[in-house]
Automatic annotation (TrEMBL), chain A:
Belongs to the binding-protein-dependent transport system permease family. HisMQ subfamily. NCBIfam families: ectoine_ehuD, HEQRo_perm_3TM. It comes from Shinella yambaruensis. It is found in: Cell inner membrane; Cell membrane. This is Ectoine/hydroxyectoine ABC transporter permease subunit EhuD.
Automatic annotation (TrEMBL), chains B, E:
PANTHER family: AMINO ACID IMPORT ATP-BINDING PROTEIN (PTHR43166), GLUTAMATE_ASPARTATE IMPORT ATP-BINDING PROTEIN GLTL (PTHR43166:SF9). This is Ectoine/hydroxyectoine ABC transporter ATP-binding protein EhuA. The keyword Ligase does not apply. It holds the Pfam family ABC_tran. InterPro entries: AAA+_ATPase, ABC_ATPase_HisP-typ, ABC_transporter-like_ATP-bd, ABC_transporter-like_CS, Ectoine_EhuA, MetN_ABC_transporter-like, P-loop_NTPase. It comes from Shinella yambaruensis.
UniProtKB/TrEMBL annotation, chain C:
Pfam families: BPD_transp_1. Belongs to the binding-protein-dependent transport system permease family. HisMQ subfamily. Residues 19-204 form the ABC transmembrane type-1 domain. This is Ectoine/hydroxyectoine ABC transporter permease subunit EhuC. Keywords: Amino-acid transport, Cell membrane, Membrane, Transmembrane, Transmembrane helix, Transport. The chain crosses the membrane at residues 12-40, 186-206. It is found in: Cell inner membrane; Cell membrane. The lineage of its organism: Bacteria, Pseudomonadati, Pseudomonadota, Alphaproteobacteria, Hyphomicrobiales.
């Protein structure tokens, strides 16, 4: 099989269409993960014991099982109990839930990394619990989290091909569809690899920048 | 003689199996300057942290300025204090830590104004005016807009003192406030504390390994060992004629290590 | 659905066969990933620029392109270059190289985290770089790596689900087969969810045990 | 030359790609692979002196690349002959023939009888396997891409139909019948055959270059057809032997 | 008079735009005990680190025991030293760090025997015998099987000294070896160093803020400020009659902070 540049230009628009959906799913998934992660983290750290433990179990369960199977579940099993989500929405929820469990760990680590002395200084200056969170802990906890969260954003981006299992026409699915109807596989699949590599190299630069920007908070 | 401002009655502090304070009692008079000295691990920090309500106590009672610290009256009896009670009691007490614990994301001025504005509802302008006075007092008025990371250790600690003073507590607790500092920077902090001791009638409790400073600063010295007060008295008594053997050994070692008394 | 007497015990047996494949992939993939993680991770901190560049290229390439594309290449494109691997080999290779790239960063991070002070002590004691790495840095770095390695192993376990792309009869694939043959979605998928979770649990339990072993004696050093 | 056949004889088995789609393929609870396509392949290979087949289930999309990459020796999966495919692989003579069918909601509310009907109804969504004949037929009839949903497998397609995510699910008649009978859902009905859609036949697909093996296969297949064995194998699964025997590769590959 | 064992000739050390050592020259005689004192940031640590080859130098030459440290002869000229040369030179030098830098995963005995076994190929039994002698010398023979985490700071530092001695270097460098210790523990380390100074003829360079100890320990004191040697002389001269204003201010501050001289 030989590489055919004409074919490459022919399929480019279709693949770019797929890339658009991939990016959309990533952005929406990230938004869901950010919020759900915070909910998980707060439940685990502050809720009454039984709820905290139950949340812990759910988080561990989601983290321990493949996203692919979870997507099947959301898309094909949930309708049995009357929840019928459009494919993209189901995908976004799946991604969000799965990566939310990772985000929760980042939040927890970020908050635990605020030195105990800061909590104590807040107490010694008689701040209330709420004031301590808002004025002392979160402003210090969030910036160092940002690179780690961005890391998961990139990981999520690379897992979007799973959405093809639930009929979302993202990049990988478009490529497969193109390949199937033309019986040429190497070009579309290689292009997908190249797209991923380009996006990921861009994001590496972006990450370095984030890390530098936010790692300096302490020394400022 | 005035009534004690702090009355510690038979308190016990345990960490798991380890008993750190074992039925400790002591009293502090209003305006008194007290130095707590003793070997490492003897419980000096613990007693300050308990007074600042950073720990809980396993047993006993503490009265601060006429009110119970860890308890509050209810239906004629005493019950464990709730958050509101603790919050009210903490108004009377301020603390300066060994590692400063400044808020690194806020400038010097904001470090000092944050608590008055949030806990006492002081207006921003008033809080900043008072903060500038205090920063001036500790010699750092020109650093008001700096971030803590831009300061030397000694400067940080002076800001921390100003921050604690901004709430005008009746009692100030100092836990080894110079021991994380380069030797050259120790003096600037001690100077601020000398000024504070001579110019205000605040009650002060000081934990230190600077025997010379303890001697000059304190009205009374408490020597701790293994969670108990082994010996107490005026500085001259303790340093020149310690009665207890434990105190003698401790002081001998400290002196041999090159500290002036 | 009740009209056929579905032989569930038989189909669950099929899924268990898939579980065995998943297990093989996980174990062998982890082994390869571990080797690659150390090779590339130490390569990243090498003082030879060529070695560093090679390691960096490997890491960025495998972290950058998606595991799907890598599997596709290993399975469908590599044969054109004359390398034909069995599905299991292809799966192990792709997963191992992919996760190894992530592991390499863990190794590098842990080695770096064993601070300047320990390195300097080694120089002052006149140890060579190799001796310092082997006797001082790695033994301390290992406990730091383990928790992340545990996560990586679980990621790899989950990654095995995508090998159904290359017709490897892993657990997810078998669940699909059972689903097609029985017309039932819930049972096969619920079964494999539980199985995956149990395997993940086994990995983290084993890692915790290992962690306790390698940190013995270090208690109280790292705060 | 017969190198490939000798090679298969030597190793004692042929590697066959099959689909996860009854009744073309069936997997028993004990894991044994049967179904019309593998059964025929097994029998022909036996006669060729290749003792057994090793069947591996594959996505439709992965079959041809797998064949090209030498992962399988042959595909017997209901991969219907069409001119473009004939260019990509070397087909045997026809084996399994089937028309196209629709599964849709009881009473056919949208009145869909052909791919053209779907194209004309802007609300109608069709599900079909990615890279399959049905997807192509729908697209060729003018159904826009965003109304042709690529469905990974039969059960998923049926489920999506039941859940109202698609209005039509299109597969060969026998596949649809098998799916619908397993689902036993009174709200689903079948339209078969689809109007205007040709009858298609699959053949065993070999790699380009393995024509010698393909020719040997054809010889034994023809004997099998003649003896009546062929009908005995495929008719229990619902396929018509007569249909396969009434057409040729040449016709099917030329058809437009 | 013997030839100097260390000859530092006009070295320059820069970190980016910052010049830390600016054309520093000094000599040390074999067996000499030298104390380096001076304010924070003056470059004391830097010079020790350079001698230990933990840094590179930007310019200048250093000769140790007759050989160039950062250079080696080649084709009649001098070229930058390669790893082998540095490895050979490091045999002559040992260093003890402020934070001990013990290997936390090895027991005390293994900490001491590791380097002799690896770098000199000493057999295990011989290395352990020598290690036990050294541990005995620093008073820790009974802790040989303990892990570093089970030791106090003072004990850790004594192990670190034994570890450095195990390689029998000609020159020992000590960088603020007591400043990370609790005051009570300082003395046990200084005692070991006193013993070392009086019993061996090793050349020793000591950076310290313990003025009293510097006075007793050193044959000669170098006072550093901003990367230069501002003043040097016998301990009595420097401490009793410092000639330079900078030295006077420094000593005044240190004394005010409670250190004995
Ligand atoms: N959070 C804790 N958990 C367990 N033990 C603790 C904790 N905090 C303190 N301790 C123990 O309590 C004892 C007293 O500690 P404390 O910090 O009060 O001593 P100290 O007199 O301040 O000593 P130093 O001079 O070293 O600061 C010590 O044995 C210490 O190990
Ligand atoms: N790695 C480095 N990068 C940049 N600047 C450095 C580095 N190491 C040291 N310096 C700077 O070099 C100067 C001299 O530092 P050095 O540690 O030698 O001082 P010192 O005399 O040992 O001080 P101290 O008494 O505080 O230990 C300081 O200004 C310091 O900030
Ligand atoms: Mg303390
Ligand atoms: Mg220094």
């Amino acid at each position: 099989m030989e590489w055919d540049w004409n074919f490459v230009w022919e399929i480019m628009p279709t693949l770019l269409q797929g890339l658009k959906i991939t990016l959309l799913a990533t952005v929406l998934g990230a938004a869901v993960a950010t919020v759900i992660g915070l909910v998980f983290a707060i439940l685990r750290m502050t809720a009454p014991k039984p709820i905290a433990r139950a949340t812990g179990f759910v988080v561990e369960f989601i983290r321990g099982t493949p996203l692919l199977v979870q997507l099947y579940f959301i898309f094909y099993v949930l309708p049995d109990i009357g929840i019928r989500l459009p494919a993209l929405l189901a995908g976004v929820i799946g991604l969000g839930l799965h990566y939310g469990t990772y985000a929760a760990e980042v939040y927890r680590a970020g908050i635990e990394n605020v030195p105990r002395g800061q909590w104590e200084a807040a107490k010694a200056t008689n701040l209330t619990g709420r004031q301590t969170w808002i004025h002392v802990v979160l402003p210090q906890a969030i910036p160092p989290m940002i690179p780690a969260l961005a890391n998961y954003l990139i990981a999520m981006f690379k897992e979007t091909p799973l959405l093809s299992a639930i009929t979302v026409l993202e990049l990988m699915n478009q490529a497969k569809s193109v390949a199937n109807s033309s019986y040429r596989y190497i070009e579309p699949m290689t292009l997908v690899g190249v797209f991923f590599l380009i996006m990921s190299l861009i994001s590496v630069v972006f990450l370095r920048w984030l890390e530098e920007r936010y790692a300096r908070v302490e020394e400022r | 003689m005035a009534a004690p401002i702090i009355r510690i009655d038979n308190i016990v502090k345990r960490y798991g199996p380890l008993t750190v304070l074992d039925g400790l009692s002591m009293e502090v008079l209003p305006g008194e300057k007290l130095a707590l000295i003793g070997p490492s691990g003897s419980g000096k920090t613990t007693i300050l942290r308990i007074l600042m309500t950073l720990e809980t106590i396993s047993d006993g009672h503490i009265e601060v300025d006429g009110d119970q610290l860890y308890h509050m009256p209810k239906n004629g009896g005493l019950v464990p204090a709730d958050d509101r009670h603790l919050h009210r009691m903490r108004e009377k007490i301020g603390m300066v830590f060994q590692h400063f614990n400044l808020f690194p994301h806020k400038c010097v001025l904001d470090n000092v104004t944050l608590a008055p504005m949030l806990t006492k509802g002081v207006a921003k302008a008033a809080a900043e005016k008072r903060a500038m006075e205090l920063l001036d007092m500790v010699g750092l008025a020109d650093k008001a807009k700096n971030m803590p990371a831009q300061l030397s250790g000694g400067q940080k600690q002076r800001v921390a003192i100003a921050r604690a003073l901004a709430l005008s507590p009746k009692i100030m607790l100092f836990d080894e406030v110079t021991s994380a500092l380069d030797p050259e920077l120790v003096e600037e902090v001690l100077n601020v504390m000398r000024k504070l001791a001579s110019e205000t009638d605040m009650t002060m409790l000081l934990v230190t390994h600077e025997m010379g400073f303890a001697h000059d600063f304190a009205d009374r010295i408490l020597f701790f060992d293994r969670g108990r007060i082994v010996e107490e008295g005026k500085p001259d008594e303790i340093f020149r004629n310690p009665r207890q053997e434990r105190t003698q050994t401790f002081l001998r070692k400290i002196i041999a290590a090159g500290h002036r008394v | 659905m009740e009209h056929t007497m579905t032989d569930w015990s038989g189909y669950i047996g099929l899924i268990l066969q898939g579980a065995l494949v998943t297990l093989q992939l996980t174990v062998m993939g982890s082994a390869l990933a571990l080797v690659m993680a150390f090779v590339a991770g130490l390569g990243r901190v090498s003082r030879f620029i060529a070695v560093r560049a090679l390691a960096t290229t490997y890491i960025e390439f495998f972290r950058g392109t998606s595991i799907f594309v890598q599997l596709f290449w290993v399975y469908f494109v590599l044969p054109f270059a004359g390398v034909t691997l069995s599905p299991l080999q292809a799966g192990v290779l792709a997963l191992g190289l992919n996760v190894g790239a992530y592991g390499a960063e863990v190794v590098r991070g842990a080695v770096k985290a064993i601070g300047r002070e320990q390195r300097e002590a080694c120089i002052a004691l006149n140890l060579t770089r190799g001796q310092a790495m082997r006797h001082v840095i790695l033994p301390q770095a290992l406990p730091l790596m383990l928790p992340t390695f545990c996560n990586n192993a679980i990621e790899l376990l989950k990654g095995t689900a995508v090998v159904s792309l290359i017709s490897l009869t892993d657990m997810t694939f078998q669940a699909q087969v059972v689903r097609a043959q029985t017309g039932n979605t819930l049972i096969p998928f619920a079964t494999i969810l539980v199985l995956y979770f149990l395997m993940a649990l086994a990995i983290s339990t084993a890692m915790r045990w290992l962690e306790r072993r390698v940190t013995r004696g270090l208690d109280g050093v790292r705060t | 030359d017969d190198g490939k056949l000798e090679e298969l004889k030597g190793q004692g088995f042929a590697r066959v790609a099959i689909a996860n789609e009854p009744p073309f393929t069936a997997v028993a609870a004990d894991g044994k692979v049967s179904g019309a396509a593998p059964d025929v392949a097994r029998e022909v290979f036996k006669r060729l002196g290749v003792g057994d087949i090793v069947a591996s289930i594959s996505e439709y999309g992965a079959m041809i690349p797998g064949l090209q990459a030498g992962r399988h020796d042959v595909i017997t999966a209901g991969l219907f002959m069409k001119p473009e495919r004939c260019a990509a692989v070397a087909y045997s003579e026809p084996i399994l023939c089937d028309a196209e069918a629709f599964a849709l909601k009881k009473g056919n509310p949208l009145g869909l009888k052909s791919y053209k009907d779907i194209a004309d109804n802007p609300d109608a969504k069709i599900g079909a396997p990615g890279g399959g004949t049905e997807e192509k037929l729908a697209l060729e009839a003018g159904v826009p891409r965003d109304r042709v949903i690529v469905v990974p497998d039969g059960q998923s397609g049926l489920k999506m139909l039941q859940d109202g995510r698609i209005d039509v699910y299109s597969l060969p008649v026998l596949s649809i019948n098998d799916l619908v009978s397993k689902a036993n859902d009174p709200n689903i009905e079948v339209v078969a055959p689809v109007e205007g859609a040709p009858v298609y036949c699959d053949g065993a697909a070999f790699r380009k270059g393995d024509e010698a093996l393909r020719d040997a296969f054809d010889v034994e297949l023809a004997k099998l057809k003649e003896s009546g064995e062929f009908a005995k194998i495929i008719e229990p699964y619902g396929f018509s032997a007569a249909a396969a025997m009434s057409t040729t590769r040449e016709k099917l590959c030329a058809a437009q």
